[in-house]
Amino acid sequence: MRRGISVVAMAAAIVLGATACGGSSGSGQDSGKAKDPAQVSGTVTYWDTSDAKVEAPTYKALIADFEKKYPKIKVNYQNVDFTTVEQKFKTSAQSGKGAPDVIRTDVGLIPEYASLHYIAPLDGTAALTGTGDFVAGPLNTTKYEGRSYAVPSVTDTLGLLYNKKLFTQAGITAPPTTWDEMIADSAKIKAKTGVTGTYMNPDSYFLLPFLFGEGADLADPTAKKVTVNSPEAVKAVTEAKKIYDTSSLKIDFANAYDNMQTSFKTGKVAMLIQGPWSVGDDLTGSAFKDTANLGYAPVPAGSTGKPLAPTGGQDLAVYQGSKNLPAAYLFTQFMTSTASQAEIAVKNGTLPTRTSAYTAEVLKSPQIAGFKPILDTARPRVALPQVGSLFTPLQQEYIKILQGKASVQGGLDSAAKQFGKLLPDYAVQ
Question: Residue 27 in contact with residue 21, Cβ under 8 Å?
């Protein structure tokens, strides 16, 4: 999880932002509107955070195609580990030395990078075209204070993955659509098959469907108020705790994610809240030797009646201090085009962010076909620069709640106080 932003870092960002805006390359929108893109030249350094062995070859092939289309532009491709890229980018952006022209970044980092003036606004540039073709959820992840600071590249969300065979054995004909139905179905599955209903991931990101389903969130930027301990949030976490107590395998908190995956793919639990990134691993397990046994459904709904999960994925952003913005814009446009996204989806199994990229060939993938309708109800995380830092105290308190070491209200009140330190201008209940 990300740390808070220091005063020193903020000051450096303001200086850097002023330099980037005032330099010869600048971040002016006109530089993205080359009259003849074929005449644009230069070198684009691209930091790619995709899996170096499995996914990166697809991106490298696309880069070769880009260089053929724009022979005057060369791409300096660098694969950077996603666990270190955030700090590496911040360090280079703060110093003004060594930052890439284009970076592939988690959608949750866009507000922070934009607030620090590390990435360029892209509205009206060649980088951001055909916005009406983007799926609404991924497009919303690029926004900060009314402007677009990235282009959606690949997307994901959370859904309900389930073991169809176990559901059939328990006499369940459809996946649960509410948390109460999930508890009831878990009881049926346990009674009929001896298998536990689910495994609750204690990571706070996986708590978001519960919060969103009650109309709750971590904070309210409009009202400048911390809301993680609101009555709606308390109701959401109470529901999550109930599922853990009645329907979940007990968590090994030291190795929760791996144990969750093992339990599901070996048939020891019947359903999970998970993302499309897990499917490849799921299909290696004994429970899913027949790939058709893996079912996909939206997350269950809370009292709002809507299945709401967070929009995740990766966006492409352009460094505001880039000395070659026109080439960076063209590269970003090419890598997020319909053709490129369809190619990435077919080769890597990731979900496109453009509607037009969901071709018949792309939809042959069960996981893409399964998650595509789930994206329709996904929503972005609250657009705060500090949002990543908020997950750490929330997770610490959520674990205490699940373990019975803190009450729901007490744990969320504690998280809210810690949120207040990260959001000093926000009111805390």
Answer: yes
pTM exceeds 0.90 for this model? no
Confirm if 402 and 244 have CB atoms less than 8 A apart: yes
Q: How many whole angstroms separate alpha carbon 424 and alpha carbon 273?
A: 33
- Rounded Cα–Cα distance for residues 25 and 23 (Å): 5
Unique residue bearing structure tokens 């600048």: 26
Q: What is the DSSP letter of 300?
A: P
Both tokens of residue 380?
């972005």
Reported CATH class of domain 39-157+311-379: alpha beta
User: How does pLDDT run across 104-124, given as a tens digit for each residue?
Assistant: 999 999 999 999 999 999 999
159-309+384-428 maps to which CATH number?
3.40.190.10
String of DSSP letters for 106-164 = EGGGHHHHHHTT-B---TTSTTS--GGGB-HHHHHTTEETTEE--EEEEEE--EEEEEH
In a 10 Å sphere around its CB, with 0-12 CB exposed, 13-18 middle and 19+ buried, how is residue 204 labelled? buried
Q: How many Cβ atoms are within 10 Å of 178's Cβ, its own excluded? A: 16
Answer for the pair 119, 145: CB distance below 8 angstroms, yes or no: no
Residues sharing a CB contact under 8 Å with residue 361, sequence separation 6 or more, in sequence order: 342, 346
Enter the tokens of residue 24.
Answer: 């010869």
pLDDT digits (tens, 9 = 90+) for 291-304: 999 999 999 999 99
Q: Do domains 39-157+311-379 and 159-309+384-428 have the same CATH topology?
A: yes
Q: How many CA atoms lie within 13 A of 102 on its CB side?
A: 33
> Domain extents for the chain?
39-157+311-379, 159-309+384-428
Q: For residue 59, give both structure tokens.
A: 């991106």
